[in-house]
Amino acid sequence: MRYKPARGGTLINGSGRIWEVEDVRQWAAGGATFQCTYVNDSLQHLNTCVTVGNLKTGENYQVGIGAASPLTDPFLGQSFGDKQVLGGITNISDGINAPFYFGYDNGASSGPGELTAAVFPYGGSLHWGYGIGTLAGGRQFRKVATRAYNANDGQGGKTAYLHFYPGANAELPVHDWTVLQDPTLTADKAWWWNANLGSPLMGLNRNQADRKMPSYATVAEREIVWNLTSNGNPFITQVTETMDPGHADAKIRRTQQAIDDFGNLLWRKEYAFGSTTVLAREYEYAYETGSAYTSKFIRNLLKTVKLRRPGDTELTVVSNSYDQYGQFPCGGLYSSPTVLLTAMTGSGVTLHDTANYGTGQWVRGNLTRAGSSTSQRCSSYTTGGTVKQAWDGYGHAVTVTPD
C-alpha cells in the first residue's frame, strides 16, 4: 500500500489518501494492482480507483462527490458548517458505466448526513428512515426506524418497520428487544438481548422468534445460552430450537459446544430430534500443538475429529497432517509421489519474502494429508501456499499450474 504525498509535500506516504495498492497478482516489481486519483480541490476528494498493469478486470470505479450543504445536529439543529458526501459510484470498466447513486437526509437542504437512499444501476432502490433512541442515563442516539425497498418491478415500494424496547426515558443500558415487521404486516422477527449492565454478555442475543401477525403466534423460536472462555471471550454454548412451540406436535432440537481460548471448537453435542436430554452424537476436535507451530502463533490447525454415538464404536472421521515435505504421507499407495515444497518461479513473484520463506522454511501450516479410516488425500505446495499437485489414495492426481 502506498499513499499520496501530504498537501504541499512531495514525499509519498505522507497522507492518508491511498495512491496505489500492490498485491500478488501484479507481475511488475513495484507495480500497482490498483491506482487511485484525486480531485484537485481543497479537500482532494477521491476521483477514481482503477486496475492497472497486467490486470484487466471489472474493478474500475469513478466516485462522485455531492455539492456542499449545511451540516446540522439532528438533536438540536445546531449548525457545523458545510459537508460534502458521496453522491455516487460508477463502474467505468469497458464502457459499462453502471452508476450507484446515494441520497441523504431525505433530500433536505441541510441535515446530519444520514444515508436515506441508495439507487442501483437497474433502477432498484433501498431507503432508510431514522428516529431517536434513548438509553440509560438519558443517552440519545440516532437509529434506523424503517427500511424500505423498491425492486423496480412495478409493484411499488415495500417498507419494513423496526421497533425497539426500551423507548423514551429508558433505564436499560441497551435495547432489551428488537422487532422487524414484514412489509405485508403478516409476519415479524423478534430478538431479545442481554441487557444486564456490567455483564460480559451485555448486548448479546439470547432469544429469537419468528411470528405470525397480527396474532403474534410464534411459529419458531431459538433460545441461546452463552458462556465465557478462560480468557473471558463470550461464545455460544447451547442453542435450543423449537418449531411450533406450544403445540402438541412441536419439534425441538438442541446442540451444545465448547471452544478454547483461541476460538477453536473443542467438542459439539447433538441431541436426538425431539429431546433435550437424549444424546444422539458427539464430536471431539483436536488441534496441532507442536512448539514449532505455537511459537509462530499457528493454533488453529485441525488434527483429528472423532465421532461418538451411544452404544457405538468411536470413529475417527478426520485425520490431518501438515508440512510433510519429502515424505510419503499417503503411504505410497498407487505410486503416490513424495509431498514437495517447490519455489515459486517466474516474473510474477514480486511480494514474496523468498529469503526467509523459501523452500527451507517448512513450518507453514499447509495441509499435506487429509484423511480418515477409509480414504486419504495428499497435496504438494509452492512456497506461496498454492497447491501444486494433489492426489488421492486411488491413483487419481491433479497438477496445478498457477499463473
Query: Percent range for helical residues?
Result: under 10%
Per DSSP, what share of the residues sits in E-state strands of 2 or more residues? over 45%
Strands, total number: 28
Uncertain segments are: none
Give the end-to-end Cα distance, rounded to a whole number of Å: 23 Å
| Number of alpha- plus pi-helical segments | 1
Average pLDDT for all residues: 89
What's the SSE pattern? EEEEEEEEEEEEEEEEEEEEEHEEEEEEE
Which outline best applies? globular
What can be said about the biggest beta sheet?
A: 26 strands, mixed
Query: Structural class of the helix and strand makeup?
Result: mainly beta
What's the topology here?
Blueprint: E1 2-3, E2 18-21, E3 34-38, E4 46-51, E5 61-65, E6 69-72, E7 79-83, E8 86-91, E9 98-104, E10 115-119, E11 125-135, E12 139-150, E13 158-165, E14 177-181, E15 187-193, E16 205-212, E17 217-228, E18 234-243, E19 251-259, E20 265-271, E21 279-287, H1 291-294, E22 302-308, E23 315-322, E24 341-342, E25 367-371, E26 376-382, E27 387-392, E28 397-399
Parallel strand pairs: 24-26
Antiparallel strand pairs: 1-2, 2-3, 3-4, 4-5, 5-8, 6-7, 8-9, 9-10, 10-11, 11-12, 12-13, 13-14, 14-15, 15-16, 16-17, 17-18, 18-19, 19-20, 20-21, 21-22, 22-23, 23-25, 25-26, 26-27, 27-28
